Amino acid sequence: MLTFVQGDTAPAIRSTLHDLDNATEVIDLTDCTVRFQMRKADDRRFTINNTATVVDAEDGTVRYLWGPNDLSVAGEYEVQWQITFPDSRKQTTAETETIRVRRA
User: Fold this and answer.
1) Residue whose C-alpha is closest to residue 19's, from 59, 67, 51, 54
2) Which of 10, 27, 52, 72 is close enough to 36 for a disulfide, judged by CB 3.0 to 4.6 Å?
3) Percentages of the chain per state (helix, strand, coil), in multiples of 5
């Protein structure tokens, strides 16, 4: 579990996105867009659903830079990445990651 402090905007959250069928194979993100999605563990609505930055397309590496209010509420959150391929197909990461935002 990753832990961030309430109100912080750094460090960015980073991930390498892997193929669903082969966890050792990264997804080539060339010409793809990726969204970072975050919600409270007990909520169905995303508190964040914003475009992420593709850091290295061939290595499947992405990052999301926190906005000024993204980490304003303490609690546990589930995060996932949604990929949109050039042909408009969408794929969401199979496993969600859990992050904790602790009080300052």
Assistant:
1) 59
2) 52
3) 0, 45, 55
| CA-based end-to-end distance of the chain | 18
Domain ranges of the chain: 2-102
2-102 fold: Immunoglobulin-like (2.60.40)
Tens digits of residue pLDDT in 32-87: 999 999 999 889 999 999 999 999 999 999 999 999 999 999 999 999 999 999 99
Most distant CA atoms of the chain, gap in Å: 43
Q: pTM higher than 0.85, yes or no?
A: yes
Neighbour tally for 81: CB within 10 Å: 22
